[in-house]
Amino acid sequence: MADFYAVLGVARTAPDDEIKKAYRKLAMxxxxxxxxxxxxxEERFKEITEAYDVLRDPQKRAAYDRYGEAGLRGGGGGFHxxxxxxxxxxxxxxxxxxxxxxxxxxxxxxxGGAGPRAGQxxxxxxxLKLEEVATGVDKKFSMxxxxxxxxxxxxxxxxxxxxxxxxxxxxxxxxxxAQRSFFGQFVTVTPCPTCHGEGGIVQSxxxxxxxxxxxxxxxxxxxxxxxxxSTGQYMTLRGVGNAGTxxxxxxxxxxxxxxxxDPRFERDGEDLYTEVLVTYPQLVLGGEVSVPTVSSHVSxxxxxxxxxxxxxxxxxxxxxxxxxxxxxxxxxxVQLWTPERVTDEERQLVTxxxxxxxxxxxxxxxxxxxxxxxxxxxx
Length: 379
What we know:
Blueprint: H1 4-8, H2 16-30, H3 39-55, H4 58-67, H5 69-73, H6 84-95, H7 102-105, E1 122-128, H8 130-135, E2 137-148, E3 164-165, E4 174-181, E5 184-191, E6 200-201, E7 214-225, E8 234-237, E9 253-259, E10 266-268, E11 271-278, H9 280-285, E12 287-292, E13 297-302, E14 311-314, E15 330-336, H10 344-356, H11 369-376
Parallel strand pairs: 1-9, 11-15
Antiparallel strand pairs: 2-7, 3-6, 4-5, 8-9, 10-11, 12-13, 14-15
Helix pairs in contact: 2-3, 3-6
């Protein structure tokens, strides 16, 4: 069980503003959009957001202090670990209107207080080939999204009318209630039930969108995918998702990448590994062999007396580093090819070779596997 205070690096007696400050600092460090979709950063972001969401709420914090996570599970709404969507929602809910988000998103985004609700985010999965990963690619998608109503221009009000200030919350978009509980008196802040947090009420709803300010439509978007991405990484298109209600900002589109396996290669980050079969004469006498790259072939000069299993390193023949400079390497392992069938002439030649070389000389074993491993590790 995680210690929520330790997760945020604060004392158990820390006041609310200190908890909020600690969370904001960590969230700005581990936010997925600042870490190129790193899975480790994403898990850390969810962990600190979960801790913050419990400690920021007086009732949840009191229950946690007394009973731990068991106290949270015993509540009416239960307790569950947050997923990425929930974590991002919590972050935007509490910090969407504060300075500093420009560092992550490159611009402000409305959030907090009264106002129309933002549209929901959309997630799409993009299938990529290794050739596309090597160069980067632009992909076009046709998506069914909620678009602003053309009759009321997204306001939700019938043309010629406008929304009125909510009489329940006086335009604040939220109501406060004081209540007593087993842990003492608490003040809860909830969205206004009359205007649903928007601060205003549409008296004459638009007849086309029925006051929603948006309608279902189809939209084509272009995704510029950088070179070097891998399965599990993603990018976020800000303000491209569903339109919000009654003039609310658009949500985001999260583009998740899935790279198809290429039977020619094994991938490790930006490095590629492949195996090439060669004949016995090529290993003994040397020769040129054709090696596949992602988009073509290159010629590899195999020197004489090369051992089967030797690995050659072709610098800069791998994949580009995503959002960085440089290119990975292509590692080529040469492996002796053994024919399944031989002709009579080939059998005679191999038999004669066996007579000339009846066994492996004792002093030609070379470095063993473990010796090579120690040398590679600098031991």
